Structures are given as structure tokens and as C-alpha cells.
Amino acid sequence: MTSITVIHSFRRGTGKSTVAANLAVLLADGGRRVGLVDASLQSPSLHLFFGLRDLGRRPTLNDYLAGRCELGMAALDVTGQIDPPPPGAVVLVPASGEADKILESLRGSYRAEALSEGLAGLADGLGLDALLVDTPAGLSEETLLTIAAADRVLLLLRPDHQDYHGTGVVIELARRLGAPQLQLLVNEVPPSFDAVEVALRVAVGFEHSVAAALHHSEQIQLIGSGGLLVRRAPDSPAARALRQIAEELC
Known about the structure:
- The protein is of the alpha/beta class and about 250 residues long.
- It is about 40% helix and about 20% strand.
- The chain has helices at about 15-30, 45-50, 60-65, 100-105, 115-125, 140-150, 160-175, 195-205, 220-225, 230, 235-250, and strands spanning about 5-10, 35-40, 75, 90-95, 130-135, 150-155, 180-190, 210-215.
- Strand 7, helix 8 (about 195-205) and strand 8 form a beta-alpha-beta unit.
């Protein structure tokens, strides 16, 4: 049975997409067939991590949500874009970067439940071992329904008062929705802070385990969405932490 993990944050800029793309590659490094869905319709970026600057006229998640195609038709095998390629596979369902389709999503013309309804069928149709969904930051009906359909939620936050408040709201809603597993990842920890102490305080404050607390890294910033951290800097603290998280997801 496919394990579905939602990667979410209350605010933008937490590194959610970076984590999603790199976790997918690490799971594929372990021989797994991994699906990766870019549900950040208003700021899509997952395709960029795999060197896909132009998606051309191929179907995207937007087309599925608008009823123009089946979800599986928007899936694209990006394993060959990874250097070196993993023994498993990464299959991406990208979101469109076209202005018209982004505007379509802003108008709210999609059924809120469309994505959550399609995930199980996508996983079965592609024979996936794991499915990662990069959701848009904040709270929406679509995101909450996707969280409700997931087996696990990885919730990213920064050590910031607004992030703490928003994360608390997400945790409470996830609890009400019956999300079976929720884990936190603290990112962008200032270098002057003790990451271990930050992780402990967050774990105690939210009563949930913290997968990692990662210091701000200029190296990660420089790589950005232009490549994969676990390939470009495999021995970095962030890559090692993500490798540990991937092992727990297996």
C-alpha cells in the first residue's frame, strides 16, 4: 500500500519544496518508486529541481483539477533528470507556470476535493511505493482535505513567533481531521541558536516529535531550486538530516 506524505507549512519560505524534491530523490535512492505532486498552484517550482524549465504543452495538475485530463496523464518520469540516477524512480506531477493557469487557480475554479480524491488512484495507477504532496503554504479547504487523505504530515516552520502560532493552528486542525502521524521540521535556524535546544523546545511546546532543526545555510540558498541538495552537497548537515527523515519514511 502506498504511503502518502503531505509536506506543509503555515507560511511561505520555509523550504517546503526543497525538502519535498530531495526526499523524493532519497527515497528513490533506496529503490522505491516515488510520486511527487506539486500542489503549490500559485508558485509552482518542483519541476525546476529536475532541470525542467519549460513544461511545454504537456498536461499538468492544473489540467486535472479543471477536468481536462486524468491525474495520471499529468505524471512525468523525471528519474533520468537526476544525476546520478537512483535505482528507484521519481514520477512528478507538476503544476503549470503559465500565467493563465495560475490565474485560473486564483479564481478558485477547481473542486476543493479533486486532489485528495485523485491521490489513491494515482498511486495505484503508477504502482507507487510512496507519494509526497507539496501543498501550498497556509490554510485552505483543498489543503485540509489533502491532509485528511494522508498517512503522514511533515510540517515545516521557522523559529519565529508567527510561524509558531500558525503551526499550532495547523496541528490542531490536523488532529481534528484525524491525521495519523505528524512530525515537525524546523528550518532556517539562525547560526547563533543551538539547533538541538530549538528542536527540544519546539517538541515540548507542540507535543510532537521534531525530525530535524536545520541552521540557515547559504549553500542551500545558492542551490535553491536550481538543483538537488542531496546531489550537489550530499555531506551537508541538511542533506544528512533529510537522509535520516527519508529512512523513517521507508
